[in-house]
Amino acid sequence: MNPRLERNGTSVLQKELERLKARSGIKADFRVVWLPKADSKKDGEVVGDNIFIYSLEVDEALQTLRHEFVDAIVSSAVEPYLKIVNVFLSAISEDAYKKKEGVVETLLKLLADDDSRPSS
């Protein structure tokens, strides 16, 4: 890609990110990074405070930026609930593991009792 066009595109994306932050009232320290890639399976992604945009064209990159920005806001709103669910899953998994181990031990005892009987 033409470096001048890429600089222009990056500038357009940075301005759009500032507009999105101002209109939404979001105070997050997001930073947009435009890395146009023809072979990317994703158009963009949020990693930490960085919004990576892989779309090739500026117009597509703007749409991707908007999508990733909204996705990041929604994800941050849901994050506390995911943490709670993960704590519950962890506790349930531990309990299920203990029960399974108890069943295994019981079955081993039953098998051992069968082995100790004389054959007829």
Helix content: 55-70%
Report strand order across the widest sheet.
Answer: 1-3-2
Q: How widely separated are the two ends?
A: 85 Å
Number of domains: 1
Shape: elongated
Q: What is the N-to-C succession of helices and strands?
A: HEEEH
Let me know the average pLDDT: 89
Overview of the structural elements:
- This protein has two helices and three strands.
- Helices cover 68% and strands 10% of the residues.
- The chain has a single domain (3-116), classed as Zincin-like, CATH 3.30.2010.
- A three-stranded mixed β-sheet has the order 1-3-2.
- β2 and β3 (50-53) form a beta hairpin.
- The mean pLDDT is 89.
- It has helices spanning 3-24, 58-116, and strands at 31-34, 44-47, 50-53.
- The chain has 120 residues and is mainly alpha-helical.
Question: What would the keywords be for this entry?
Answer:
single chain; 120 residues; mainly alpha; Zincin-like; three-stranded mixed beta sheet; 2 helices; 10% strand; elongated
SSE layout:
Blueprint (H helix, E strand, L loop, with lengths): L2 H22 L6 E4 L9 E4 L2 E4 L4 H59 L4
Parallel strand pairs: 1-3
Antiparallel strand pairs: 2-3
Structure described in brief:
The chain is mostly helical and 120 residues long. It has two helices and three strands, in the order H-E-E-E-H.
